[in-house]
Inverse folding.
């Protein structure tokens, strides 16, 4: 995985279910993973392997959805020689889901 998030960055993500009372559009998105036309936006983390967030696979906004994402599977995912990337900390700032064009289409 390119730009794998540091442990300190992962530690700042709310734990699973900590934001369940927050409307999806108001959830903070802490990480953005991507490869090709696929994007994963992370709102929660269990501290080990499971993220909760929004996934868009192959640019298919119609079937994009909130759900669980395996960190281990993201690390192993490849398209040819290209690995999944995570937006670097200096580039990606935490923002509300409604501020991300790829996600706000769902609201």
């Amino acid at each position: 995985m390119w730009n794998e998030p540091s442990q300190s960055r992962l530690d700042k993500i709310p734990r699973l279910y900590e934001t369940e009372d927050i409307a999806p559009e108001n959830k903070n998105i802490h990480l953005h993973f991507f490869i090709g036309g696929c994007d994963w936006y992370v709102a929660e983390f269990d501290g080990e392997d499971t993220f909760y967030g929004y996934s868009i696979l192959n640019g298919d906004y119609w079937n994009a959805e909130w759900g669980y994402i395996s960190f281990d599977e993201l690390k192993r995912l490849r398209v040819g020689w290209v690995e999944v990337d995570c937006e670097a900390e200096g580039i990606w700032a935490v923002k509300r889901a409604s501020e991300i064009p790829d996600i706000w289409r769902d609201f």
The CA atoms of residues 40 and 66 lie 10 Å apart. The mean pLDDT is 94. The longest helix spans residues 71-76. The helical segments are 7-11, 71-76, 101-104.
